Amino acid sequence: MTRKIDSSRTVLVTGGAGFIGRSIVDAALEAGWSVRVVDSLRSDVHGDQLPLPNQVDFIHGDVTSLDEMRSALRGVDVVCHQAAKVGLGVDFSDAPDYVASNVLGTSVLLAAMTDQSVSRLVMASSMVVYGEGRYGGPRGVVQPPPRLVEDLEAGMFDPLDPQTGRALDPLFVREDAELDPRNVYAVTKLAQEQLANAWTIATGGSAAALRYHNVYGPGMPQNTPYAGVASLFRSALERGEAPRVYEDGGQRRDFVHVRDVADANVAAMAWTEDQRRTFRAFNVGSGTVHTVGDLADRLSRYTGGPAPVTTGQYRLGDVRHITASSDRIRAELNWTASVDFEDGMREFATAPLRAAVV
């Protein structure tokens, strides 16, 4: 969906040279925005960087630098904040980098926005703030505790009711669900939201936090431990290897195409125009449930590569089932995902990825 606006309006896209940010740049230009990008071009994220369109005003800068952000914000009407360290990470030693990139970076950006009187923010959040999501059991809605190592080792992957010990039924998660971050990345994404909320109260600004579900599409980075599962499967297939599916492949997810995510950002940029002192979270998902096993199967099929291998391995901090209700964003922003799962997977199976990072 293309939303045309007055081309005299300028959006600053932080992290605009990244996977999602680059798609937002394209969508914003198509909608008529003037676009400025600030990106640090971290070597562990970008690898062989894809070029930005010529009409983009590009600034090589870092969101953790107050002076650089003040300069980048001059003449800006709205900020689309995508700059962040993403993914589950390698181990807890990644924590300082996550906190610096995501929490410190967001606080510096908001301080600079206050200094420059920029009052509208759209920011990338994530489904990870929900933890295990939302489940139903004999006692109604249940928030399960973290899964136990001994259960995972025994191949018991589904969360259990802490009182009855029975498997719980996964439900669609809504924005008013309890927030329960369970890894460092999730903690930093929630901290970003809380900072944005505090900023709206203090300044009268407006902020829309878009809680992305599993984003995939052309231009994903490959061969990095911080990439999403779709990129890891594609990278394996390009090497002629079978995708290795953790647990039993039954993990429920909502896979949403990056072009749909970009359009959701453009919709949110318009939503914030008439809001004041408002923080609002929105799920951004396709609204359709698929499993990690489904993802691996389609990519193997559409690439003509080897069939997936289900390993039974697991990662502590991973959640079992998390799928989005996109009712709020549909009702309030008039946004609905448009890329069908089969069509998106068929395209993604042969689409170019970003070069491996080192």
What's the overall geometry?
globular
Number of domains: 1
Main beta sheet strand tally, sense and closure: 7 strands, parallel
Strand content: 15-25%
Q: Which architecture does the CATH hierarchy give at level 2?
A: 3-Layer(aba) Sandwich
Helical/strand content category: alpha/beta
What is CATH's topology name?
Answer: Rossmann fold
The separation of the N and C termini measures: 36 Å
**Low-confidence sequence ranges:** 1-6
Q: Could you state the CATH homologous superfamily? A: NAD(P)-binding Rossmann-like Domain
- Number of alpha- plus pi-helical segments: 11
Q: How are helices and strands ordered from N to C?
A: EHEHEHEHEEEHEHEEHEEEHEEHEEHH
CATH C-level class is Alpha Beta
Radius of gyration from the alpha-carbon trace, in angstroms:
20 Å
